[in-house]
Design the sequence.
């Protein structure tokens, strides 16, 4: 027996490993459903587990592509349209662009609508649909419509109505984005989703800080007729308690041409402000652990 | 009930136990415990779903395998061992023999299912830390699985009354698979025309409808199962089993045992 195990180990090292692409022999949801002989629920659980393991492994290996995520989620939800976690997972990881997601917002939208069709009384799905429209497609009108649809569901959370109203006038505001990511963080028990939401909230703080600091730099320039030489000058002018720091505790910096910059942009994978000119992300997305 | 039938039934049950059929409960217990412990580590937010789906699917599949592999040998083994002649000379009528065997096998499966049900509820309690009122729906699913076993047992006996064990197993298993596609067969019948439609419709209604007896997914999501469906399914299973058993009796009555 021991010899057999040892030999297997050596054989596994010589032979190429089966990848998920090799293992996903059947990518048609309809065929998988037929093959399950009526035991759709169990097959759905198996495919959902595979989807979670697939995403976890790719993320662990710092891969930038998640090509099989959409097929796995589509098969899972075809087998069991009432299983909710796959839809929520899809909203968070199917839509965003690489490296944080599969970069397939249209497929994510299709998945959400399928979920809503089969679970019309689950307000979370309308929230997830609106979330995808807001964060990835920046289609605030459709996001508002989704939130509004969800707000009409019995026992829907009251914030859906609030979000629908926010989309009308304040869609691009930091407060609205913070509200959405906080709702995502608090509304999920899944570790990956919570970590992703937490990371977005961190980066949102940076974007907001940089925007406010840039406005302060512009005010200083207008008042004094010159660019500030350091962030200390800006802090003094604005009566701040000290030099503003990012969520990692590193002080924000000012470039020679008066732009506010983040010291370590690699630590903030989703920021859109404070990036040095010509910046290209070199390291994969790293989620900071919850403290 | 006829005491001869009861004696044959209880002997059939004892033989099944002696053949270590109930050892499958060990495999089931290992499977369901492993799933309950591991599912939280490898998947997310579906612990309860996995336990219910896996537990009930295992109950169904284990039971179908037992029903087929024991059912196909019920008559042929007795002929092979020549004990059938002794039994029939008691005197036991041929139909009593068939009905007794059926009840014995059905009883074995009911006992097996009972122990498995305890395992499913125990695993559910382990992952959910409590049992709630909607979990009682699992009993409905288990009841439907038992009805499924009655049909499979009667079909296995039907085939074993005239065919070899191997062919009986193939026929019985094929009917189980086709019966699982009963909804698709009906859908196919609806979209076809002419003689194909008649043939497909005939097949759809003649073949056993196991998809109507499969409410595992609905129960896993705590969806309500109507009393009408429970009553209709019960009647259907009893009528279908009676039909298959009648066929088995008719064939066995006319069979030359020499």
Sequence:
């Amino acid at each position: 027996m021991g010899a057999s195990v040892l030999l297997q180990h050596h054989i596994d090292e010589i032979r190429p490993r089966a990848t998920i692409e090799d293992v996903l022999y059947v990518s048609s949801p309809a065929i998988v459903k037929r093959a399950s002989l009526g035991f759709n629920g169990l097959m759905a659980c198996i495919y959902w587990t595979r989807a979670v393991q697939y995403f976890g492994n790719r993320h662990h290996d710092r891969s930038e592509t998640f090509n099989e995520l959409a097929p796995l989620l589509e098969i899972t939800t075809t087998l069991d349209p009432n299983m909710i976690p796959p839809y929520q997972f899809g909203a968070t990881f199917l839509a965003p662009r690489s490296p944080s997601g599969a970069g397939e917002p249209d497929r994510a939208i299709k998945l959400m609508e399928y979920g809503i069709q089969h679970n019309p009384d689950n307000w979370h799905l309308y929230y997830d649909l609106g979330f995808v429209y807001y964060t990835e497609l920046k289609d605030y009108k459709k996001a508002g419509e989704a939130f509004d649809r969800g707000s009409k569901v019995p026992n829907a959370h009251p914030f859906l109505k609030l979000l629908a109203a926010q989309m009308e006038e304040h869609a691009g505001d930091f407060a609205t984005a913070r509200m959405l990511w906080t709702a995502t963080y608090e509304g999920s028990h899944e570790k990956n989703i919570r970590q992703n939401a937490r990371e977005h909230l961190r980066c949102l703080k940076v974007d907001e800080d940089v925007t406010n600091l840039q406005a302060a730099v512009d005010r200083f320039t207008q008042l004094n007729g010159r660019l500030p030489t350091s962030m200390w000058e800006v802090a003094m002018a604005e009566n701040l308690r000290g030099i503003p720091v990012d969520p990692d505790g590193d002080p924000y910096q000012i470039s020679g041409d008066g732009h506010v910059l983040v010291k370590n942009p690699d630590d903030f994978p989703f920021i859109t402000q404070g990036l040095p000119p010509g910046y290209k992300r070199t390291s994969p997305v790293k989620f900071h652990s919850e403290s | 009930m006829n005491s001869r039938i009861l004696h044959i039934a209880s002997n059939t049950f004892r033989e099944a136990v002696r053949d270590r059929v109930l050892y499958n409960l060990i495999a089931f217990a290992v499977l369901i415990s492993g799933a309950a412990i591991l599912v939280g580590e490898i998947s997310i937010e579906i612990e309860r779903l996995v336990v219910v789906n896996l537990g009930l699917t295992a109950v169904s599949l284990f039971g179908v395998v037992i029903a087929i592999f024991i059912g196909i040998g019920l008559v042929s083994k007795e002929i092979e061992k020549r004990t059938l002649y002794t039994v029939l000379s008691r005197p036991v009528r041929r139909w009593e023999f068939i009905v007794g065997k059926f009840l014995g096998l059905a009883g074995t499966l009911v006992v097996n299912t009972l122990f498995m049900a305890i395992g499913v509820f125990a695993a559910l309690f382990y992952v959910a830390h409590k049992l709630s009122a909607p979990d009682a729906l699992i009993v409905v699913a288990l009841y439907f699985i038992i009805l499924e076993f009655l049909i499979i047992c009667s079909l296995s006996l039907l085939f074993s009354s005239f065919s070899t064990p191997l062919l009986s197993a193939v026929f019985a298993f094929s009917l189980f698979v086709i019966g699982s596609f009963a909804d698709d067969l009906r859908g196919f019948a609806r979209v076809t025309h002419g003689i194909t439609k008649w043939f497909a419709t005939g097949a759809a209604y003649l073949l056993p409808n196991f998809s109507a007896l499969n409410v595992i997914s609905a129960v896993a999501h705590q969806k309500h199962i109507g009393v009408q469906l429970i009553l209709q399914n019960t009647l259907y299973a009893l009528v279908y089993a009676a039909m298959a058993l009648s066929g088995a009796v008719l064939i066995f009555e006319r069979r030359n045992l020499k």
Summary: The radius of gyration of chain A is 23 Å. The longest helix of chain A spans residues 191-224. Strands of chain A lie at 253-254, 260-261.
